[in-house]
Design brief:
The chain has about 400 residues and is of the alpha/beta class. It has helices at about 30, 115-125, 140-145, 150-170, 185-200, 225-235, 260, 265-275, 280-285, 300-310, 325-335, 340-345, 350, 370-380, 385-400; strands at about 15-25, 45-50, 55, 60-65, 70-75, 80-85, 125-135, 175, 205, 235-240, 290, 335-340, 355-360. The strands form four sheets. It has a five-stranded parallel sheet with strand order 9-10-11-12-13. A three-stranded parallel sheet has the order 1-7-8. Helix 5 (about 185-200) packs parallel to helix 6.
């Protein structure tokens, strides 16, 4: 760092953040107001029910049936019945309250599901713009790809995307960034949904970090080529949230859930490794991938190992056709995001200052709301003003093709 370069700590307030990983709890009207009449009686919806305790059991959340339990709002879609847990609607709660017990719409902070209130919470937290993943339908809409009636599943996906663009983001198109979902059972249908939404200015799609684990085509199968082509042609970034394969890394089946929380980056590391050796990034050199909630400190070693394997083992393990080292594709086409990663920042030269974006993860327990600004100042102390700008917003503007300037701030 040159002696004349200003540091983040010397600049007072940081640039306003663009958070590339937040969540929206889908409000009650998303599908009931938008599905065609023939699907109305099967629309995802909320009901008031009494439920028992929720616990973590062998890799899954299990809610007990209890007719005498607390009355709360549950999300219902066919045989799927899910209470809203406090740890996924945690904004504004004390840490001790962010547990697995149910919470109703009446009890939670309104910004969890209401766009006007969300914008107010963003103002409180030094956030200018936000990209939101779905919640009750899972992080890339897996519920709708797993339903047996494909027509119903596609209708639910289209209805969600229409709500995301026409209602949630329309509240303030400069600050609420649309993120759509696609059908995971058909690459051609997925491509069609990419093109449909690109025509109305959408440049981000939620995708599974490993669709094969969900029972769909792997990225090596060729089945996703229409989707990847569509994303490359429309400048649509492929966003993969941890857990979007519906599997979290653990050590043993009876391990406590804390293991999965500590090891979340394993999902991103496995997915990134697969993409780096898949040929996809070579065939589509303008395609952009973004990994959400995996942090970045693990990336330098993974790239070092991937390049060594490419160099030393090419005679036997299927990488002989790759002309470039895997790290080239990462630095050219892949983004990660951080929210509490001091180690990653200390190794920014290897992580890539052009590859790091910022997230708040509102309203989950991992979220730094409402202390994001102070934490970020501490984490980025010592960086140049240019590096701080890139992490807080500049890289996200490029990644998501946003029409935002450096100085713009919320009114």
């Amino acid at each position: 760092m040159s002696s004349s370069a200003a540091t983040g700590a010397d600049q007072g307030d940081l640039p306003w953040f663009i958070s590339v990983d937040d969540h929206v709890l889908e409000p009650p009207s998303v599908w009931t107001d938008r599905l065609p009449a023939k699907f109305k009686d099967r629309a995802p919806h909320y009901e008031r029910r009494r439920v028992g305790q929720t616990r973590w059991e062998r890799g899954a959340f299990v809610t007990e049936k209890d007719d005498n339990g607390p009355e709360t709002d549950v999300w219902v879609f066919g045989d799927v019945v899910k209470p809203i847990r406090r740890n996924i609607a945690a904004a504004g709660l004390d840490r001790e309250e962010m547990d697995l017990n149910p919470i109703s719409f009446d009890e939670m902070r309104k910004g969890v599901y209401d766009p006007v209130a969300r914008l107010q919470d963003m103002d409180l937290n030094h956030v200018e713009a936000s990209l939101c993943f779905p919640q009750m339908s899972r992080f890339c809409g897996q519920e709708f790809s797993e339903v047996k009636d494909r027509d119903l599943g596609l209708a639910c996906i289209e209805a969600y995307n229409d709500w995301m663009v026409d209602e949630w983001c329309a509240t303030n198109p400069q600050r609420l960034i649309p993120l759509i979902m696609v059908p995971l059972w058909d690459g051609e249908l997925a491509a069609k949904e990419i093109y449909r939404n690109a025509e109305r200015g959408v440049h981000a799609v939620a995708f599974s970090e490993n669709p094969w684990l969900l029972g769909f085509d792997s990225i090596h199968s060729g089945g996703w080529e229409p989707f990847f082509r569509a994303c490359a042609e429309t400048d649509t970034t492929v966003n993969m949230h941890i857990g979007s394969s519906s599997k979290m890394e653990s050590v043993s089946p009876d391990a406590p859930p804390v293991l999965g929380t500590v090891l979340t980056h394993h999902n991103s590391a496995a997915s990134l490794s697969e993409f780096l050796f898949s040929g996809v990034l070579d065939r589509y050199p303008t395609l952009q991938l973004a990994y959400s909630e995996g942090q970045a400190g693990w990336i330098p070693y993974l790239l070092e190992r991937a390049d060594a394997v490419w160099q030393d083992h090419r005679a036997w393990n299927g990488v002989g056709a790759m002309e470039n080292p895997p790290s080239l594709y990462y630095y050219r086409q892949v983004y990660n995001c951080i929210f509490r990663d001091f180690f990653g920042i200390r190794n920014l030269d290897l992580v890539g200052e052009d590859n790091v974006t910022f997230e708040v993860d509102y309203p989950h327990t991992d979220s730094t709301f409402p202390e994001t600004h102070e934490l970020a100042k501490e984490m980025m102390a010592g960086l140049t003003s240019e590096q701080v700008y890139k992490i807080c917003r500049g890289n996200a503007i490029r990644m998501l093709h946003l029409d935002l300037d450096a100085e713009r701030k919320p009114a």
